[in-house]
Specification:
Helix 7 crosses helix 20, helix 11 runs antiparallel to helix 13 and helix 16 runs antiparallel to helix 17. The protein is built from 20 helices and no strands.
C-alpha cells in the first residue's frame, strides 16, 4: 500500500531532478558536477546512510562506465579511423547519391533499424555517430538540405529512433529477453509482433518527428568531435563503399552470431561459450578496430605511428562524455537504491485497468523515477507475472512483454545516462535535449503501446 514515505520519496526525487536541471540550465554548472550533487541530495533526503550513499554513487558510476566506457572508447577509435581514411565521407556520398537530401531521414532510420538488431543502444550510437555527422555536414551543404544545427537533428533523430525502438521491443536486446523470461512468453511470437510494431513506430518517432523537431530545437555538436569524425581526409586512397560497409558491420555480424548461438545451442556447450566470448560487445568491437586498422589504415598508406596517433587523438573528445555518463549512472543508482522504483511499481498494481496498460504504466513510472529502462522492465515484469498467474486473466503474454518494453523508454530525462550521451554528442542544451530526445522517446513509448493494443484486438 502507498504510504507517506512513498510520497516523500517521490517529492525528494523531484527536488533532486529539479536541482540538476537548475544547475545545468540555469547556473551553467558542468553536468558532471550537477549530477553528483543531485545524487547526493537525493540520497541524503531519502535517509540513505552516508557510507551506503558513497557506495551507491561509486557502484552506479562504475557499472555505467564499465558497460558503456570501453564500448565508447573502442567505437570512437573505429569512428576516427573511418573518418581519417575517407570512408565516412565516401559512405555519406553514396547514401546521398542514392536517396537525395529529402529522403535522408528515411535512409538513416533504415540503416539504424538494420544495424540496431543485434546492438545495444549505446553501441549503435557510437558506431553511427561518424556517419550521422558526415551525412549532416553534406546535407548542410546541399541546397535542399537543412541549415545549421537542424541538419544534425534531421539526420540524427531517425537513426536514434531506429536504435531505441529495437532496444525496447526486440530480442536479443536485454529488456525484451528479461520480460520474456519473467512472463513465460514465446520468443518467436514476441519477435514477430515486435517487428510488426517496430516498423511504424520508427517511422512516426524518426523521420516524421524529425521534420517537426528541427523547427524548435538546435544541435551544435562539439567542434573537436565534429572535426574528428567529419573532417577532410588525409588519405589519397579512401576505401570503397563495400569495404566500409563490411568493416562497420563486422562487429554487428559477430554479435548477431552470438545471439544465434544463444538461441540454438545449449548452455555449457563449448561452441556457445566461445560465441558468447567473441560476441561480447567489447570483444566484437575490439576485433572491428583491429580489422579497421588494416582496411582504413595500413592498406590506405598510413604508417603504424600515424595509426597510433589517431587512436590517442580519438579518446580526447570522449573524456568529458564518459565522465558525464558516469555521473548520470551514479544519480540513477542512488534513485534505485532509495526504493522509489519499488514504491511506484506497487502503486501501479492498485490501478484497475487492462493488464497491457497496467504493465506499460508500471514500466513508465519506474522509468521516470529511476532513469533505467532495464530496471523498469525487470520491476514491471516482476510485478505483472504474479498478477497474471493469480488472476488467471486471458492476456497475450507476448504483447504484455512489448507493452512493458514500450513503457520502459518513456520520457528519458536527467536521471538517464542515455540522456547525457545524446546531450553531449549533439551539443544541445538541456531544454533542447528534452524537446527532441525526450519527446522522441515518449512518442516511441505511446505509439508502441497504441500498436500493442491494436494488435491485441486482432490477435
Amino acid at each position: 500500500m502507498w504510504d507517506s514515505h512513498d510520497t516523500e520519496l517521490v517529492l525528494y526525487a523531484l527536488v533532486a531532478i529539479g536541482l540538476v536541471i537548475a544547475l545545468v540550465a540555469g547556473l551553467k554548472v558542468h553536468a558532471f558536477i550537477a549530477l553528483l550533487l543531485g545524487a547526493i541530495t537525493m540520497g541524503l533526503l531519502a535517509g540513505v546512510d552516508p557510507p551506503k550513499l558513497i557506495e551507491s554513487i561509486t557502484a552506479g558510476a562504475g557499472s555505467t562506465l564499465g558497460s558503456v566506457g570501453l564500448v565508447l572508447a573502442l567505437g570512437t577509435m573505429l569512428g576516427k579511423l573511418l573518418a581519417e581514411s575517407g570512408g565516412a565521407d565516401r559512405l555519406a556520398a553514396a547514401v546521398l547519391d542514392r536517396t537525395g537530401p529529402e529522403r535522408i531521414p528515411w535512409a538513416m532510420a533504415l540503416i539504424a533499424y538494420v544495424v540496431g538488431i543485434p546492438l545495444f543502444f549505446e553501441i549503435g550510437v557510437v558506431l553511427l555517430i561518424p556517419i550521422i555527422f558526415v551525412v549532416a555536414r553534406r546535407v548542410q551543404q546541399s541546397s535542399a538540405g537543412a541549415r545549421g544545427g537542424n541538419a544534425y537533428l534531421l539526420v540524427g533523430l531517425p537513426a536514434l529512433a531506429g536504435l531505441s525502438v529495437l532496444h525496447a521491443l526486440l530480442p536479443p536486446h536485454p529488456g525484451p529477453l528479461i520480460g520474456i523470461d519473467a512472463l513465460g512468453a514465446d520468443l518467436g511470437v514476441t519477435m514477430l509482433y515486435g517487428f510488426a510494431i517496430a516498423i511504424p513506430t520508427v517511422i512516426v518517432a524518426g523521420p516524421v518527428f524529425a521534420r517537426f523537431a528541427t523547427h524548435w530545437a538546435d544541435a551544435q555538436p562539439p567542434q573537436d568531435l565534429v572535426d574528428q569524425v567529419a573532417k577532410d581526409t588525409e588519405s589519397d586512397d579512401p576505401p570503397s563503399v563495400p569495404v566500409v560497409v563490411l568493416t562497420i558491420l563486422l562487429p554487428v555480424a559477430i554479435m548477431l552470431l552470438r545471439t544465434l548461438a544463444d538461441v540454438t545451442l545449449d548452455e555449457g556447450d563449448a561452441l556457445r561459450d566461445w560465441a558468447d566470448f567473441v560476441g561480447d560487445p567489447i570483444i566484437a568491437l575490439l576485433i572491428g578496430v583491429l580489422v579497421a586498422m588494416w582496411t582504413f589504415g595500413l592498406s590506405r598508406g598510413f604508417s603504424r605511428a600515424r595509426l597510433g596517433a589517431f587512436m590517442g587523438e580519438s579518446l580526447a573528445p570522449a573524456a568529458a562524455i564518459l565522465l558525464i555518463i558516469g555521473a548520470g549512472g551514479a544519480f540513477k543508482q542512488v534513485l534505485i537504491d532509495s526504493g522509489i522504483g519499488e514504491a511506484l511499481g506497487e502503486a501501479a498494481e492498485s490501478i484497475d485497468v487492462s493488464l497491457l496498460i497496467l504493465g506499460w504504466l508500471a514500466a513508465v513510472l519506474i522509468r521516470l523515477a529511476t532513469g533505467s529502462a532495464t530496471v523498469a522492465i525487470v520491476t514491471a515484469a516482476g510485478i505483472m507475472a504474479p498478477i497474471v498467474e493469480s488472476t488467471g486473466a486471458d492476456v497475450n503474454l507476448e504483447l504484455l512483454v512489448l507493452a512493458i518494453g514500450a513503457g520502459s523508454v518513456f520520457f528519458s530525462h536527467v536521471n538517464d545516462a542515455g540522456f547525457w550521451l545524446i546531450n553531449q554528442y549533439f551539443g544541445m542544451s538541456v531544454a533542447d535535449t528534452i524537446k527532441t530526445w525526450s519527446v522522441m522517446e515518449t512518442i516511441i513509448s505511446v505509439v508502441g503501446l497504441a500498436l500493442v493494443l491494436v494488435v491485441d484486438l486482432f490477435a
